[in-house]
Amino acid sequence: MTSTRHSDVIENVSRRHAVQMLSGGLVLAVALPRTARASAAPEFGADAEPGGWRDNPKLFVQIASDGHITFICPRQEMGQGIRTSLAFTLADEMEADLARVSAVQADGDQAKWGNQDTDGSRSLRHFYMPIRRAGAAARLMLEQAAAARWGVPASEVCAGDHMLTHEKSGRRIGFGAVAAAASALPVPADNTLRLKAPSQFRYIGKDKVTGVDLRDITTGRAQYGIDIRIPGQLYGVVARPPVLGGRLRHHDATAALKVPGVVKVIVLEQPKPGYPVQATGGVAVIARNSWAAIKGRKALKLEWSDGANSTYSSDRYREELRAAVRRPGKLVHNEGDFEASLKHAAKHVEAEYYLPHLAHAPMETPAATVRIAGGHCEAWASVQDPEGARHALADALNMPFGKVTVHVTLLGGAFGRKSQPDFVVEAGLMSQALGGTPVKVLWTRDDDLHHDFYHTVSMERLDAALDGDGRI
Hints:
The protein has 472 residues and is an alpha+beta fold. It has 14 helices and 18 strands. It has helices at 16-20, 57-60, 82-94, 110-113, 123-150, 175-183, 214-218, 254-257, 290-299, 314-325, 338-343, 386-397, 422-433, 445-450, and strands at residues 26-28, 61-63, 69-73, 101-105, 157-160, 163-166, 171-174, 234-239, 247-252, 262-268, 282-287, 301-305, 347-355, 367-373, 376-381, 404-408, 439-442, 458-466. The strands form 5 sheets. It has a 7-stranded mixed beta sheet with strand order 10-11-8-17-14-15-16, sandwiched between helices. The longest helix is centred in the N-terminal third of the chain and has 28 residues, at 123-150. The chain is flat and about 80 Å long.
């Protein structure tokens, strides 16, 4: 299928340290990336996601003059290995040496990178083929650049092991030597790409691939949201309603303000019913270090009104669910005669399963740092959905969406918890209250367990009729 890509406007989208190593090389980064294909048929998978997907190599690939390749990963790394999986997928199709490939995280920008919501175990499912196409297109562009340099047909140039070879003359050249020339070429259409056969894979599906972040993680160099340090930053913790939907009736911060290091105590706006960002309510204590902030919070004198949820009982709700699953349900699909099978069954097996409120409890508790300066909000956070975090910050701070930037750090686990940006909004509100001073919000483990977005409570009942051999 032929597609149209925009490749006429080049911009630098790398992070600072990536820029430093790209001097004189190729920056495959395009300002107007192609969006997902339009189709009159119903969309599923990646096509149905907001922002769709991208497969333009000028968006994801940077090649330095020494041949080092930097892959810009559109999805967040939280221990599931997506930066490694997509990096070796790209390297395989590019015929690159994976040892010379590194990965950096894309900032939140769904219009540029495609859908970035890293949720539902779908990153590789949605981006596997687009990244393969991006790798194959980059390989072809490098082959074309080498062919033009040597004055030979591109069909006679072959990429392999980070090198480009012209078999007839025996000439060889590295990727970095033609990177700049390749960047000036138009991106090939999909129907001109040569995707590798599975039998040709060097990395995809192999068991000897090392994680691109493994060394940094195991040596303590990797930077997570909780590691962020910005000059002049303060630290904030929040005393939140003990019951979801509760309201602050009265607070006395006198003792808290006497704790050495405490700078300010502010009341955060209470959430509206529905709790789309449930934790942006309570009393925030901001200090020069995290320990002072935590001690200050303990010194607060607070009175809460628990609201409508004060009488909620998980035990009572469990009994309501149990009664519901024991009543006849709506018949959705019927095949055969269950009642007759049950009547003649050698054995009747019945079971009920209950899933209670479960906290996600990632190893790294929620943490985010926000700075507001010059009418621009800049956040560093371990979030699964940076686009959602941008919208939440823009709404909470009453700022234009285009004035909000979210830098995504490594996530020390998430399991869905960090798809909610409540902790990022808290940091934004504190920074705004201090005139833009950077503030890092930290959640203790107690905060994390008490104020999580819990997994949904559920109850299931199953009945099975078995024959004499134990078959259903």
